Amino acid sequence: MSTPGISILDGKYMVTMDLFPQQSKEFNQIYKFYEYLKEGRFTTTKCKDCGSEPFPPRVMCPDCYSTNVEWIDWPTIGTVIDVTEEAVGVPLGFGKPPLVHALVDLDGKKTFFVRIINCKTGELKSGDKVKLAVFDVDPVPQEFGREVINIPRVFYAFEPVK
Amino acid sequence: MDRNVCVIAGGMSKWGVRDGSQRDFFQEAAKACYDDNPQLNPKEIDGLLVASAYTERTSYQTHLAPLVAEYVGIQPKNICARVELLCASGSSAIILAFAMIKSGQADIVMVAGGEKLYTPQKWEIFYSELASVDHDWDGGQGLGLPPPVFAMVAKQHMLKYGTKKEHLGVVSVKNRRNSAKNPKAQFQTPVTMEEVMSGRMIVPPLTLYDCCPITDGAACIVLAAEEMAKDMTDKPLVYIRGTAQASVNNMSANMPNWTTWEALKIAAQQAYSKSKVDPKEVNVAMTHDCFTISEIIEMEDLGFCKKGEGGFFVADGQNDFGGQVPTNTDGGLLGCGHPFGGTGIRQGIEVTRQLRGDAIQQVPNATIGLTHNLSGFIAAHTVLIYGREVA
User: Fold this and answer.
1) Are B340 and B276 members of one domain?
2) Does the global pTM surpass 0.90?
3) Which chain A residues have a beta carbon less than 8 Å from that of B144?
4) Does A6 lie at the interface with B, CB-CB under 8 angstroms?
5) What residues make up the domain containing B56?
6) Residue B202 contacts residue B193 (beta carbons within 8 Å)
7) Nearest CB to B152: which of A20, A84, A89?
8) Which of these is catalytic: B157, B288, B338, B381?
9) Going edge to edge, which strands form the sheet with B217-225?
10) Whole-angstrom Cα distance, residue A90 to residue B151?
11) At what angle do helices B64-72 and B22-36 cross, to 10 degrees?
């Protein structure tokens, strides 16, 4: 590995250049979201006091401010409201254009604007069903004392139901 | 203490794809600001608020305000800090400077905003934009400063209200025509409707001329308490009448509505109420035309026309010279470009000139002006109302 122009960074990990979130418990108290994601589950936190189900998942309920929250499963299949296909300006790390996004109604829970993968240009249209798609992303080489351990990571998009 | 607050000077660097560093542009902007008002003694400025969003990412510089103070030759004694709200950093800093002066915490405050966004390798700016939305959730979906978001807004608005691609084109043609007459703007050439309609596809339905560019540059404005301002300028005084800033969501999943911007309606209502101004009384406006569809929705949610009629309003020339509310008379973001922290200040400068009566393209007899920024994933809206008289 080499970093042109900054030779001292050869082989170093940079959180400030990472596309994806930290997913270890040392760096993220909602790490269970990612553990469940690895099982193909799409989850959030539900407040045990007021019943609120916010997304993204929280440490504290944003409605009644309780910290008494539990993990619940949300649907993994949604319905496409509309689609966009980005031809120019796709950030590094998100493949060759077009980068497809869709506004997805997740069974009445929330309307998500998410990346759609495994989908050809022009393939997806309003009313189509899409499902959660979980994929591996680069592990984080995290220091534990003098040891460096690779923390495996995943992230999610949606894909057409075929 | 409750004092009236005036704008007494303003100026900007040349904006565009610039040779130079962030600190170079702050000096150029300060020079233009000092030249705008030779009666202002910069040594008397007692506060500095600096607006910059990407200073850490593209200039590797935090603790920016003391650096800018040193470079522009001032020694603030009441406030010296940076304000960040991405695309609305500049107008946020103006609001805070206004509040400090109004309450007596400072007398003469410079607000300086700008960015060096172009990096030696261009991929880094697009990559850095993933920090501007909720990085852990929307950033991971590849949504930077998001053309796909505004494309979705445009599609939904077209579907719901019959807005046409040609309506978007009218905004591009108007703002590029205006920027062509503004020597500080990034784009110095007008575009025709034919060029706009055949522009390179970015994210359907948005093509090249629907999108504001990436821009280097800076701008400075100086505010002062009325009693001091009277002795520091021979030009007509321009007052800040009222301000507001609202946010109701951040992550995309929490957008209450894609075609009506709830936070904009709240901010506008608050600003109108504090300023004792009715939308119909606004003579000139600088609204956040990061994409053409934005300006159309802003006409609606700022109350200049009925909901859903924004496309037809702009196509009818109602937000151009001779219409109800000439908008982005200096070229807006589409023409001037958009160095995030600089934009709200550029808007404040142009509204000040319109109200003083010395704009490059003057709206006749303008007495009330409005500026608006949106920021992030359409997550916050900022509205300021300026006037020749206090509220």
Assistant:
1) yes
2) yes
3) 89, 91
4) no
5) 5-121+215-238
6) no
7) A84
8) B338
9) B79-83, B47-51, B108-115, B217-225, B5-12, B238-246, B380-387, B368-375, B284-286
10) 14
11) 50
Phi-psi region of B378 (alpha: psi -120 to 50; beta: other; left: phi over 0): left
Q: What is the pLDDT of residues B125-181, one digit of tens each?
A: 999 999 999 999 999 999 987 799 999 999 999 999 999 999 999 999 999 999 999
In the numeric block, the tokens 């040193």 are attached to B70
**Does B201 contact A99 at a Cβ distance shorter than 8 Å?**
no
pLDDT tens for B317-343 read 999 999 999 999 999 999 999 999 999
Residue B128's closest chain A neighbor by CA? A17
**Known catalytic residue at B381:** no
The CATH number assigned to the domain holding B330 equals 3.40.47.10
> Do B87 and B151 belong together in one domain?
no
The pLDDT of residue B1 is 76
Residues B225 and B310 in one domain: no
Give the separation between CA B258 and CA B149, rounded to whole angstroms.
9
Domain match, B231 and B317 both: no
Residues of B in contact with A110 (CB under 8 A): 253-254
Do B142 and A85 make contact, defined as CB atoms within 8 angstroms? Answer: no
Set B87, B290, B305, B336: catalytic member: B87
Taking the CA of residue A87 as centre, how many other CA atoms within 13 Å lie in the half-sphere pointing to its CB?
13
Residues B283 and B150 in one domain: yes
Q: Are residues B317 and B363 in the same domain?
A: yes
**ipTM greater than cut 0.85:** yes
B220 among known catalytic residues = no
Query: Is B151 close to A84, i.e. CB distance below 8 A?
Result: yes
Strands B206-207 and B201-203: antiparallel
Q: Kindly state whether residues B115 and B26 are assigned to the same domain.
A: yes
Q: Which residues touch A31 (CB under 8 Å, ≥6 apart)?
A: A23, A24, A25
Is residue B309 in a domain? yes
| Nearest Cβ partner for A91 among B57, B126, B149 | B126
